[in-house]
Amino acid sequence: MKEHACHPSCASHANGAHDGRETSSSPSRSSTHPPSPPTAAAHAAAAVTDPSGRRRFLKSLGASSLASASAAWLPGAQAQTQTQTQTPNEAAAASASAGVAADGEPLTLSVNGQRRTLRVAPNAILLDVLRDQLQLTGTKKGCDHGQCGACTVHVNGVAINSCLSLALMHDGDAVTTIEGLARGDTLHPVQAAFWEHDAYQCGYCTSGQIMSAVAVLADKRIGRDDASVREAMSGNICRCGAYRNILAAIQDARSRMGG
């Protein structure tokens, strides 16, 4: 009788369909024809008639496919696995090294008096570089359209909306953010005046207001009267009701600065 070549998981074994034939355990077969390892086709054939086998087959197929896809589409998977076995100090050093070698254009800025060299994407916005790469989060992201003034910083002494400016446009420039106004524990006169006149409510727009106010007081072309100050500050808008206090703080700071 010709042997039925099937895998032991075949449903016919379970149903006794091969009773009376020579089994795989017979000495003659084992000595001359050792059993072959089950193939994928055999697994698939067995899975068709055995629901539990089908579930096991699909589960193993899905796991192997996922592993293959991960290896093909995630080039950093191996590096991530290696990082998981590193100590915290080794992982931090590897991350720092990866940051230095990351793709991007070189950019050098003088930020609040400190020289900073980094790499940025060609389309990186100055606001995002200050907040995300240099961690200077005092400069706020508001409308992202240059209308609210929350992102105001000074570049070479001139107030600009950092959300509208590409970082690479300012290579070699001097940038001052709200973090750079105070001198140690001594507040800038405008900062002190805003505090004393309660010129803010939630405070989200305050850093932009202060940066614009400092620029207004430094610009001799802007009149000293309230109307001129209001006009000069019109690029900083907020929904709060502190405009009257902001104006009072600016005029107070003017007198403190001898302007």
Q: Could you describe the 3D structure shown?
A:
Strands 2-1-5-3-4 form a 5-stranded mixed sheet, sandwiched between helices. Among the domains are: 104-180, Roll (Ubiquitin-like (UB roll)), CATH 3.10.20.30; 182-258, [2Fe-2S]-binding domain (DNA polymerase, domain 1). Helix 3 packs across helix 4 (51-73) and helix 8 (189-196) packs across helix 11 (243-256). Helix content is 44%, strand content 10%. Strand 3 and strand 4 (158-161) form a beta hairpin. The model is unreliable at 1-32, 61-84 and 92-101 (pLDDT under 50). The longest helix has 23 residues, at 51-73. The protein is of the alpha+beta class and 259 residues long.
Draw up the topology in text.
Elements: H1 11-15, H2 27-32, H3 40-49, H4 51-73, H5 77-84, H6 88-100, E1 105-111, E2 114-120, H7 126-133, E3 152-155, E4 158-161, E5 174-176, H8 189-196, H9 206-218, H10 226-232, H11 243-256
Parallel strand pairs: 1-5
Antiparallel strand pairs: 1-2, 3-4, 3-5
